[in-house]
């Protein structure tokens, strides 16, 4: 700006000294006047942005920074700054756009800390928006430019990206690289074993988990995962050994008033599996007392688990009580809506409310086979002699069966077919359900197979219904023989 006594120069000097005196509003008046004659004055836009930020007029401040970005399209610093502003304002797409411009700018002479921060932010934004390939490219750039002091984190992030993209072999490569920097990082070893398991390289998965357990014998999560793989390869004694070890470790942690909610939940599941429902309940109640403090999501999860255990114990009042508490905290909890609705249908109480609860669960998760099954079963229970509602029940149950091959859904379908008089279809559905249960039982010996009360009840009910059909067929067959015999005798008499 020329020092020739022009109005613009006077306005600049006045505005600048008002800024130094922190008289931001007055400074804005003089600086805005300059832009009327010099709309592309970068320095004035910069000062105005500072003033507007000081008086908490963010939109105006951002408008001036955006103008600078237009004037300097290849300037790393301005695009990096604008990207950070957009990110802080929740404008994710704007942030990505500016970080991309910063990434394509000339970065010679720029502090490596700023470049690294920008690239990490860009990669993170790509991840949030599911742009896996772009995120991977940015992480590779961070590694190539040696912009990180912790390459293990980059390789770990890359591994997770490839896992999400189901590119398991590439994920393994990244986790192996991460392991070289930190051989005993639990998340790295965990995912590496998970990838080997996905590729059905069970020996490698087992070796990975065992290696970590040798380093840290109290790593209960690794032991749980090891037990699951042992079950998959039918090494049932080893699976039970690892579960028992986990149980002992977790009991010790919880008795020491652990602050990790996962430890209470997992211990409760292990106790329930062993048929120790009362101890499982005590463990979850301890979690509520010792760990959960204002975390409604965690509290809802624990209460939902309690409802399941009470269901297994046929403690109906507590099932309702726990589920009502979950819905009081979170009316949109679709699992609790469906569970409570199905439970009411089973008990034959509050049927109208039950249908409403199940419909709400479906509105939140419309392709859930279990919820469709619940609604179909509710219609069946309400149908009685209403053929139209029976047809609706059949429609929902067929829809459910399209989403999942589940023995309970097949059992319900069989009931509807039987009520409609299609005995052969009913028999076919019930037999298919029994066959599915038998297939699952082959996978583990009976003494290790954990069966829920609901599963046992459903299976027993279907077996009884199949026997009923067999009996009815025997009666029909006997009638036919009697009628045939009568006709023969009469013919002889005549």
TrEMBL record:
SUPFAM superfamilies: TPR-like. Gene3D superfamilies: Tetratricopeptide repeat domain. The keyword Repeat applies. Keywords: Repeat, TPR repeat. TPR repeats lie at residues 42-75, 116-149, 152-185, 186-219, 300-333. The keyword Repeat applies. InterPro entries: CellSynth/LPSAsmb/PSIAsmb, TPR-like_helical_dom_sf, TPR_rpt. PROSITE patterns: TPR. This is Uncharacterized protein.
């Amino acid at each position: 700006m020329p020092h020739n006594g022009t109005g613009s120069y006077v306005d600049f000097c006045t505005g600048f000294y008002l800024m130094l005196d922190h008289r931001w509003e007055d400074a804005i008046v003089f600086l805005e006047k300059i832009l009327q004659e010099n709309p592309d004055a970068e320095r004035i836009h910069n000062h105005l942005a500072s003033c507007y930020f000081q008086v908490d007029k963010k939109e105006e401040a951002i408008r001036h920074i955006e103008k600078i970005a237009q004037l300097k399209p290849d300037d790393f610093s301005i695009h990096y700054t604008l990207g950070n502003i957009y990110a802080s304002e929740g404008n994710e797409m704007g942030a990505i756009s500016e970080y991309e411009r910063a990434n394509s700018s000339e970065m010679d002479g720029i502090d490596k800390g700023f470049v690294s921060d920008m690239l990490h932010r860009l990669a993170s934004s790509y991840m949030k928006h599911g742009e896996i390939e772009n995120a991977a490219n940015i992480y590779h750039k961070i590694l190539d430019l040696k912009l990180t002091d912790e390459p293990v984190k980059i390789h770990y992030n890359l591994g997770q990206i490839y896992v999400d993209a189901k590119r398991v072999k590439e994920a393994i490569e990244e986790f192996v690289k991460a392991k070289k920097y930190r051989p005993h990082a639990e998340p790295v070893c965990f995912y590496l074993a998970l990838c080997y398991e996905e590729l059905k390289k069970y020996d490698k998965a087992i070796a990975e988990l065992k290696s970590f357990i040798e380093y840290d014998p109290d790593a209960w999560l690794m032991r749980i995962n090891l037990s699951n793989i042992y079950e998959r390869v039918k090494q049932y004694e080893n699976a039970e050994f690892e579960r028992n070890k986990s149980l002992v470790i977790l009991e010790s942690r919880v008795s020491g008033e652990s602050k990790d909610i996962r430890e209470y939940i997992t211990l409760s599941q292990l106790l329930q599996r062993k048929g120790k429902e009362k101890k499982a309940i005590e463990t979850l109640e301890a979690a509520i007392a010792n760990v959960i403090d204002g975390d409604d999501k965690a509290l809802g999860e624990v209460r939902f688990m309690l409802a399941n255990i009470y269901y297994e114990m046929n403690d109906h009042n507590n099932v309702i009580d726990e589920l009502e508490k979950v819905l009081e905290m979170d009316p949109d909890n679709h699992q609790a809506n469906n569970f409570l609705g199905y439970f009411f249908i089973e008990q034959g109480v509050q049927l109208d409310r039950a249908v409403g609860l199940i419909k709400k669960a479906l509105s939140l998760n419309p392709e859930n086979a279990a919820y469709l099954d619940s609604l179909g079963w509710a219609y069946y229970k309400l149908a009685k002699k209403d053929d139209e509602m029976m047809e609706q029940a059949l429609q929902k149950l067929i829809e459910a069966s399209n989403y999942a091959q589940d023995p309970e859904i097949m059992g319900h379908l069989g009931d509807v077919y039987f009520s409609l008089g299609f005995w052969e279809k009913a028999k076919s559905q019930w037999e298919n359900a029994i066959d599915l249960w038998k297939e699952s039982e082959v996978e583990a010996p009976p003494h290790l197979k954990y069966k829920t009360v609901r599963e046992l009840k459903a299976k027993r009910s279907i077996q009884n219904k199949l026997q009923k059909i067999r009996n009815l067929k025997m009666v029909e067959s006997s009638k036919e023989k009697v009628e045939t015999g009568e006709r023969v005798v009469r013919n002889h008499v005549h």
